[in-house]
């Protein structure tokens, strides 16, 4: 009926083309009534200023998306606030004007924030465009009330987030992602935030809420090369003070693929991005200092030039090339406590070239982690979608040292199957100049069944040869099944990595192990506005086995059972309470080389000495270990947002080279991260991580660590900010002791024994940055970093510099 009315009102006008207002009242498309098919008008010579003032007469003739419904915390009920979305296309862009009404406009959360950094603390609206209409991948454009932008790629089955560099979940993907929310909390939608697109936005607060305008050039998105096409569209809105999530097309928790719920922009005709080429010259300069033989010396200033090129082969295939790319990052990684950590810590990718256009490499187990490319000289990428197949290639020359280069090639193919499923293959190769190599080939699939269940499978094999050794091989297998739902959800996974599996282009924390896990949860809901909007329990059971021990029929090395209660309160506050029991064991070979000297032996001719005896802990020393955790997330207050956690854990003290448990310790830890917003332009982050481990055998201290961090940022406007960071990283650990005798444990190798004694660090980090980024790729950075070492913990006496660096970056993104 709506389409018929629209057609009647356009009588006498070329269908799909509007040159002047043809009606006084725009046609409304009510999402809650299922009116999700939108004939999209083409308006030529539209004179629209993207300033957040919806005053031009052209908006009076455009379709209006209205009738939003809430999907969190309540589902399927009318939205708490009205939202109207106008849309039309011109010959080179798609335009949106959004009126976000609010009955309490003074409570709207809006700050002048850095790009891509506002969605956790601000109100915003998000436009999701499925330009290939394949219900698997879409562009996400978000705008806060001041027009601050956030963008990325929505990838069904992905884990979302920024800077992953690995393009996949670190422990496995789920059945799909929501739009965010989760009973007033923040659940990350499956959006890869790394790509930055060039588009325009403007916004302003009004007496009735806020208004935003968006213009997305066709050059900034990829779409099918077809004369007439349809795009999927969804528009969502987040109201930060209460955590409410609302959408135009109704959304339900039992649907794992949210893009299947989207509406349709119809009659998009002869879309043409024209010639698409971008040239991005980059100039960087730096001067580094370091401690050398007790003297602090500075290197000569270093200036470098790089060039990035992007060419749109077609509207759906893009080629990127780079020479001498800028792979610097403008902010240090936040400190992580590692005094009793058995496995490698994960640090996010922050280098621009590797962050954009590579979401296709996403897999449940990370076979691609671009931080493994350490010092690239040149790189190339090609990504695109041809029919129902998506292809991606990334190659780089990595100058790992002055004498040799490493050649990296990554190839990925993914094929759409049915309405929402995919199958794919991946190949990674790292080849050195001495016939050393590491190669991985893998296949994967994501199958959606009955619009509620998701099955993900992945298999891979690796071949590795280094330093003239024989080629070693290994295999990986991964499978996960998940059920989406508003009340009941569950998932189960099994993964197995053989001892020879080595993915040097990826990041997998635990190798040569098998892992099984099952999770089940149930939620009850209160009414909208209730003090308790949602609560429910969840149960998580998991175990780890040595790969060979599993298939020999032996027991696990690690097992955990965890019960969690989640309470989502009114005004966007969440509380999680967790308790668990754990058990650890380790094979005898993990203790090889560990010895103690408990007995004195005397010989009349040779004197007295303490011979070494192999250390092996008593049986059943690491069972029934308890954990209690409380975690609070707050995001409803105007001036303070943040999270606080406290944790008590009985955990083993590990011999870190093999991960073997040595003795049991009581661990007390806490983590506080608060964001203070004293004004719309100033933000401060206060962070504190603290950990203490005491031995259960005698109550003595094994380790303690504390990392306070302060970051302050002043945002002058959407493009310009200054930021400073101060971090102090204190960590100390005492030596390993035999819990029965209290004697030191030594490590012996080839007749040489070393006491595993104490360590201590007292590192100080200072950073300052001036950033000007009017649009992605056009930037000016000027920053300074200084690392120092304190003589004692928090003494601030005789603080000695260990390294510093002054850096500058300037680039301009030319678009043809």
TrEMBL record:
Residue span(s) of domain DUF5916: 302-373
Classification via CDD domains: CBM9_like_2
Protein name: DUF5916 domain-containing protein
Lineage of the species this protein comes from: unclassified sequences, metagenomes, ecological metagenomes
């Amino acid at each position: 009926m709506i389409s018929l009315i629209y057609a009647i009102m356009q009588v006498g006008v070329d269908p799909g083309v509007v040159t002047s207002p043809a009606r006084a009242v725009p046609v409304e498309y009510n999402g809650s009534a299922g009116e999700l098919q939108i004939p999209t008008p083409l308006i030529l010579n539209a004179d629209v200023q993207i300033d957040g003032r919806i005053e031009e007469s052209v908006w009076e003739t455009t379709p209006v998306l209205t009738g939003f419904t809430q999907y969190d915390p309540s589902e399927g009920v009318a939205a708490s606030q009205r939202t109207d979305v106008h849309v039309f296309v011109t010959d080179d862009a798609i335009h949106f004007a959004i009126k976000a009404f609010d009955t309490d406009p003074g409570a709207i959360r809006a700050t002048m924030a850095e790009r891509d950094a506002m969605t956790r603390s601000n109100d915003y609206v998000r436009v999701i465009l499925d330009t290939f209409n394949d219900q698997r991948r879409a562009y996400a454009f978000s705008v806060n009330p001041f027009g601050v932008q956030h963008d990325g790629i929505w990838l069904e089955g992905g884990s979302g987030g920024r800077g992953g560099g690995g393009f996949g979940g670190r422990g496995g993907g789920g059945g799909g992602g929501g739009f965010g929310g989760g009973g007033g909390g923040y659940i990350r939608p499956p959006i890869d935030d790394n790509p930055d697109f060039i588009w325009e936005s403007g916004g302003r607060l009004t007496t009735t809420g806020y208004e935003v305008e968006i213009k997305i050039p066709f050059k900034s998105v990829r779409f099918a090369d077809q004369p007439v096409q349809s795009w999927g569209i969804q528009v969502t809105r987040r109201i930060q003070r209460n955590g409410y999530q609302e959408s135009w097309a109704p959304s339900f928790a039992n649907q794992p693929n949210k893009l299947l719920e989207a509406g349709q922009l119809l009659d998009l005709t002869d879309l043409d991005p024209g010639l698409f080429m971008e040239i991005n010259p980059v100039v960087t300069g730096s001067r580094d200092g370091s401690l050398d033989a007790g003297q602090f010396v500075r290197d000569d200033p270093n200036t470098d030039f790089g060039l990035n090129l992007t060419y749109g082969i077609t509207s759906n295939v893009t080629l990127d090339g780079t020479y001498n790319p800028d792979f610097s990052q403008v902010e240090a990684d936040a400190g992580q406590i590692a005094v009793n950590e058995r496995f490698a810590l994960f640090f996010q990718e922050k280098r621009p070239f590797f962050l954009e256009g590579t979401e296709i490499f996403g897999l449940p187990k990370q076979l691609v982690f671009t931080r493994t490319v350490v010092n690239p000289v040149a790189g190339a990428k090609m990504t695109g979608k041809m029919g129902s197949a998506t292809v991606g290639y990334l190659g780089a020359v990595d100058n790992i040292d002055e004498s040799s280069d490493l050649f990296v090639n990554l190839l990925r193919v993914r094929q759409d199957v049915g309405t929402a499923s995919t199958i794919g293959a991946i190949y990674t190769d790292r080849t050195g100049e001495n016939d050393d190599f590491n190669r991985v080939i893998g296949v994967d699939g994501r199958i959606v069944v009955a619009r509620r269940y998701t099955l993900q499978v992945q298999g891979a094999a690796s071949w590795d040869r280094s330093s003239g050794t024989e080629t070693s091989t290994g295999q990986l297998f991964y499978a996960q099944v998940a059920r989406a739902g508003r009340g009941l959800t569950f998932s189960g996974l099994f993964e197995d990595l053989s001892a020879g599996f080595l993915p040097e282009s990826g990041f997998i924390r635990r190798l040569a192990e098998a892992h099984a896990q099952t999770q089940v949860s149930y939620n009850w809901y209160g009414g909208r506005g209730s003090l308790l909007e949602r609560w429910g329990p969840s149960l998580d059971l998991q175990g780890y086995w040595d790969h060979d021990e599993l298939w020999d029929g032996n027991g696990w090395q690690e097992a955990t059972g965890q019960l969690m209660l989640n309470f989502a309160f009114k005004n966007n506050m969440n509380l999680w309470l967790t308790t668990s029991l754990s058990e650890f064991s380790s094979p005898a070979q993990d203790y090889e080389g560990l010895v103690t000297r408990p007995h004195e032996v005397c010989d009349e001719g040779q004197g007295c000495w303490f011979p070494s005896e192999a250390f092996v802990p008593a049986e059943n020393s690491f069972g029934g270990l308890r954990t209690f955790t409380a975690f609070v997330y707050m995001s409803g207050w105007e001036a303070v947002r943040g999270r606080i956690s406290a944790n008590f854990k009985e955990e083993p003290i590990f011999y870190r080279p093999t991960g073997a448990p040595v003795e049991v310790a009581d661990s007390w830890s806490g983590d506080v991260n608060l964001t203070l917003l004293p004004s719309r332009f100033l933000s401060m982050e206060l962070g504190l991580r603290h950990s203490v481990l005491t031995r259960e055998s005698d109550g003595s201290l094994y380790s303690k660590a504390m990392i306070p961090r302060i970051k302050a940022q002043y945002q002058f406007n959407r493009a310009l900010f200054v930021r400073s960071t101060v971090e102090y990283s204190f960590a100390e650990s005492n030596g390993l002791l035999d819990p029965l005798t209290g004697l030191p444990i030594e490590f012996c190798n080839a007749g040489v024994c070393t006491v595993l004694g104490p360590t201590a660090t007292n590192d100080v980090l200072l950073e300052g940055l001036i950033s000007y980024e009017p649009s992605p790729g056009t930037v000016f950075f000027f920053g300074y970093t200084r690392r120092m070492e304190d003589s004692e913990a928090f003494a601030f006496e005789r603080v000695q510099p260990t390294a510093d660096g002054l850096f500058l970056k300037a680039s301009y993104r030319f678009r043809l």
